[in-house]
Amino acid sequence: MAGADGVWALGDAAAWWDPALGEHHRSEHWTTTITQAAQVACDILGTEPPPAMPPYVWSDQFGLKIQTIGRTGAADETVALHGAGLDGGAVKGTVAGYFTGGALTGVVSFGAPALVMRYRPLVASGADRRTVLERAGT
Fold first, then answer.
1. pTM (2 decimals)?
2. Same domain, 31 and 83
3. Are 39 and 29 in contact (CB under 8 A)?
4. Which residues span the domain enclosing 63?
5. What are all long-range contacts of 53-56, with beta carbons under 8 Å and residues at least 24 apart?
6. H-helix or E-strand containing 99?
7. What is the pLDDT of residues 46-93, one digit of tens each?
8. DSSP 11
């Protein structure tokens, strides 16, 4: 965090340092506010914060839950982990992995909430393509 000592901000109005992007970044989703609140509490108490988890957002659109974990913008490869949505099939049930330099940096799912959360620790660790594909069973 940057700014004045003893002053904290979180939520939509706060830009926090993002080491993956190398800059301050706003993440305008309530799930980020929960993570930020835990970090602020630790800073106030002078304790070690929990390990950072990759960003997570979701939205319900047209009866379909869309979930994103991590960062997808800089990926150089997108791989279908579940479902046929990337190949012109049904979108519902599709989970896509986003890889940057062979490391998993993001996951997006369409109507597959039971599947997507298993990838959060893999995004957090930057798991390699082979490990991710083995976990997916593809």
1. 0.81
2. no
3. no
4. 56-136
5. 53/120, 53/124, 54/106, 54/120, 54/123, 54/124, 55/27, 55/29, 55/31, 56/29, 56/31, 56/32, 56/120
6. strand 94-100
7. 999 888 888 899 999 988 999 999 999 889 999 999 999 888 888 999
8. S
- Which residue is listed with tokens 């798991």? 127
User: 68 and 36 in one domain?
Assistant: no
Asked whether residue 72 falls in the same domain as residue 108, the answer is yes
Average pLDDT, the chain: 89
Verify that 1 and 61 share a domain, yes or no: no
Work out how many domains the chain is built from and give that number. 2
Query: What distance separates the 2 farthest-apart alpha carbons in the chain?
Result: 53
Same domain, 21 and 43: yes
Structure tokens that stand for 94 in this block: 């599709």
Query: SS3 for 131?
Result: helix
CATH number at residue 60: 3.30.390.30
